[in-house]
UniProtKB/TrEMBL annotation:
Molecular function, one GO term: DNA binding
Segments traversing the membrane: none
Organism name: Allosediminivita pacifica
Family matches, as PROSITE patterns: DNA_POLYMERASE_A
SUPFAM superfamilies: 5' to 3' exonuclease, C-terminal subdomain, DNA/RNA polymerases, PIN domain-like, Ribonuclease H-like
Pfam family, one: DNA_pol_A_exo1
BP terms from Gene Ontology: DNA-templated DNA replication; double-strand break repair
Role summary: In addition to polymerase activity, this DNA polymerase exhibits 3'-5' and 5'-3' exonuclease activity.
Full protein name: DNA polymerase I
UniProt cross-references to SMART domains, sorted A to Z: 35EXOc, 53EXOc, HhH2, POLAc
Family statement drawn from the similarity comment of this UniProt entry: Belongs to the DNA polymerase type-A family.
Residues annotated as domain 5'-3' exonuclease: 9-269
Domain named DNA-directed DNA polymerase family A palm: residues: 691-894
Amino acid sequence: MDESFGTGCHLHLIDGSAFIFRAFHALPPLTRKSDGMPVGAVQGFCNMLLQYVGKDHGSDAPTHIAVIFDKGSHTFRNDMYDQYKANRDEMPEDLRPQIPLTRRATEAFNVACKEIAGYEADDIIATLAHQARDAGGRVTIVSSDKDLMQLVGDGVEMFDAMKNRRIDREAVEEKFGVPPERVVDVQALAGDSVDNVPGAPGIGVKTAALLINEFGTLEDLLDRAEEIKQPKRRQTLIEKREQIELSKRLVLLDANTPLDFTLDDLQLRDPDPEALLGFLSEMEFRSLSRRVAETLGAEAPVIPETAPEAADPDDAPEMPPFEEAVYETVTDAGGLKAWIDAAYRRGWVAVDTETTGLNEMACDLVGLSFAIEPGHAAYLPLAHRGEGDGGLFGDGDVTAGQMGIQEALDLLKPLLEDPAVMKIGQNMKYDAKVLGRYGIDIAPIDDTMLMSYAMNAGLHGHGMDTLSERYLGHTPIPIKEVIGTGKSQITFDKVPVDAATRYAAEDADITLRLWKTFKPQLHRAHVTRVYEGLERPLVPVLAAMERAGIAVDRDVLSRMSGAFAQKMAQLESEIHELAGESFNVGSPKQLGEILFDKMGIAGGKKGKTGAYATGADILEDLATEHDLPARVLDWRQVSKLKSTYTDALQEHINRDTGRVHTSYSIAGANTGRLASNDPNLQNIPVRSEEGRRIREAFVAEPGKVLVSLDYSQIELRILAHMAGIGELKQAFLEGQDIHALTASEMFNVPMEEMTSDVRRQAKAINFGVIYGISGFGLARNLRIPRAEAQGFIDRYFERFPGIKTYMDKTTAFAKEHKRVETLFGRVIHTPEIAAKGPRAGFAKRAAINAPIQGTAADIIRRAMIRMPAAIEALPATMLLQVHDELLFEVEEGAVDDLVGAARTVMENAADPVVKLDVPLVVEAGQGPNWAAAH
DNA sequence: GACATCACG
DNA sequence: GACGTACGTGATGTCC
């Protein structure tokens, strides 16, 4: 048995990562009964390994075996091509905890388990296969990955364990149309959208095989490309030579991976029955344990039956009433360790952080609460203080009976970062940011707020109080009752520990109960993909952006504030002079009375509250005849810029970082858009020259620049795709001016004779369509008679009948299902669609707009989620999102690399889930400040 | 706290 | 035939 590897030996190489990924998607989801831990893929993996235990494979019997895993995501291929595998979606959260379990399973079966940092499993497999073949042995690669097919031949075969099918030379030839030796040549030409290997555009596997068979090898083909008869193909191969050669280097496996073991280390060994059966019973695999016990001649372990799942899946999970809940206060390391151990055993824990304030960037951690079972939760106070007003005499001392904050966090960090334990929270971005400032990178996470958002957007809010009342029938203790309100409000660290425990532990308890309620509903609502692909993975990305913040030049803002104050005072005195009396220009009520009563200007219209309307559109109409409204418009603009921007932004500069940190609400906008608050950095002025100067105060650090990338016309492109408008799609494919084209089609004006005014009108119509156009709205926007506007709309629908069809289909769908969906499956509920009266009009237009706006929101979310991996190696940081724009701060020398990488991610963000008929185009700008970058 | 106004996509 | 109306947000100031 201890001879070294050679003739007569048979090595089985199992592609572990690929197997578990396929098993996860192919097998029905299975969870461990006792605690709900997902284990379906682990079971499939163990079933596969079982064949290697004590069985006689005859002449095919393996003598050596190893399971090969990927290690880390960055490999030498990323150094060659930064976009390699950049399109990969995040690993599903239910698969993540199964990866370490798979490694443990391999060890339990006493099978060698190998991985090498910087190399893919495929490279290790290639290296071992070559070594085994050269030593005269046989090799079976357990995988169906086409990237491994280049290794087949000369005693190397593949085996598709899911389909129970051998893959030999003939099977490879059948798939690729060339023998295994030439597979890389075909792959280099055809490219691969999954791994993001570019290949030659327009050439697929069929054409590639044809070319390789004609010319012999890829190198001969490229050298003799001039001989290709088809002109387009010839041109592609000549022009894209470098890209094709890069593709070949990407797909070619490295058979010289440095290994820290030899083939002899992979000899097949019998498992230790105790270790293997112990693992299987821990996983609660009953039939598998029986079969293994039988094979090994051991006693089958007894796995206790736990309570079966509720018979009716619609039944709410059983939970004890809140009145019977038990909330503990954890005061020492022993108590905390008990909770940590319980969390490990369970595989999940609900967590909530309590802090001194709502600003995650400028507050201190006061305590943490935990829940593992409904009705049983704990609060861990860490920084509660005694009396002391926090003012002149400073804060009181930290009171006795609390663990040291550092000691507690040191104990908690491994748990909060353990990939096998799910951390459950309500608005986890908050907790992640706070804990991040204390050096804890909490993962993996589930978020009940985001679960509700994925299922219930449009129906109600997603705050904890709303959800608790709605889904648990329980009103949580109001925070006001704990910290008070108004002037006498205290910070949470001044709250007595017993009151804090009741409040904080209840929050964790509620969060856990909500999770138990929502988790099984996600699947039934068909939003698991949305939740796992578009909501949850955004949490760490946004947390990082918010923590990064953006530098704002206080002096620039301060100078502008001063100038604005002067201008306001000047305008104010002019206005008072014109009015003949002094009044508050900022009061629409007083202004209306001056304009329409005192001065007797015609056109005063009172709104529903009985006050005159004095909005900008009305004042603009008056401004043609009168000076006063014109001055008021100027005053309002300056006043807005000063109070909302130049004054307020200075208040938001963080003391510690010197930067401004916004906070994004993920579940704020019903359509899937983000919203920015405290401060809102998504509405910094840009449309007026005067306002745009405020963007000059948003600056890059010395040595760096700001880079802005924004999607061009993304909503119109989505409309062209969704409504299937051939002319519009064609125009986008050809890169034409879409508003000019619309104008040309509608008004029969040739493109060469287009005037800016006609184009402007067409642009307004295009936007109107996205908003659920109405004659009234368009008339008001263009300031034309309503009949004329209606005429435009009629002509538009005549010219693009597909748009009308799309709008009718969307409203019909909304009426039938009380919801609409984006291309990525995001659900937006439209309960108002059934309303009568004016509200029906609102609901209808919202229903038309939501799939378009929402799809655009989904696309940029996907780009943001993929961005960190794509720019990992660059000295660049993603700072802000403004709906169709991403703003980065990057070292001067790396601008081109960043633009290239970020643009690729953004333009391909819909792939591979949605294949758009129109290209997504991203425009880039850069400069020392945001005004220059935009 | 409601309302009007106005900044953005 | 009348009703009312562009879609989605957040911050500020006034006024009750």
